[in-house]
Amino acid sequence: MRTARARRSVLGVLGALILALAAVFAAGPAQAASPSPGAAADQRFFAPPAPSDAQAGASLAAASPGISPAVNTQHVPAGGSFSCGNGNFCAAVWDPTTSDWKIFFLFACQRYSVSNWLGGGAYYNQQTGNATASIYGQSGNVLVSAPADGGILHDINWDAVWSIRNC
């Protein structure tokens, strides 16, 4: 009796693990060539200068910019370089908690909700296959329609942005 129960428990755990792995890999790319933010063939980009109102030290009341669902991120100093991998929509948001730019690499085709994205920043649409990103305001209105353009730097004020759909 215990052996049958143990087998069922093991099978149940394995089934749950398979379902969890399937969910992780179910989200498809946004017409992407490479999910890696640092692949060798990727173009190098430069983060904008620090915002004029950036404090020298991190504020105690400041919060780091975030995104949901989670994506790969990288911190880059003002003027520092980073790679925005082919297939990514990359967004640069000033992080007052670290006094540098937090780069978000949006790869999987979906709508992302943003939090604490404040002030000026930039985006780079390095997606492939003519994918157009949409940047939305609080009421779901499209603030910016950003066609794939090989990752040209575009300045943006993140204050009114509530979500991004990268494809």
Separation of termini?
53 Å
Number of domains: 1
Taking all Cα atoms into account, the compactness measure Rg is 19 Å
Shape: globular
Average pLDDT level: 79
Structural class designation: alpha+beta
Sheet having the most strands = 5 strands, antiparallel
Number of strands: 12
Order of helices and strands: HEEEEEEEEEEEE
The total count of helices amounts to 1
The proportion of residues in beta strands is: 35-45%
Helix residue percentage = 10-25%
Widest beta sheet: strand line-up: 2-7-12-9-10
* Poorly predicted tracts of residues: 4-40
Task: Lay out the secondary structure.
Elements: H1 2-26, E1 43-46, E2 66-68, E3 72-76, E4 81-84, E5 89-95, E6 100-106, E7 111-115, E8 120-125, E9 132-136, E10 142-147, E11 154-157, E12 163-165
Antiparallel strand pairs: 1-4, 2-7, 3-6, 5-6, 5-8, 7-12, 8-11, 9-10, 9-12
Keywords: Signal
Protein name: Secreted protein
Signal peptide: 1-32
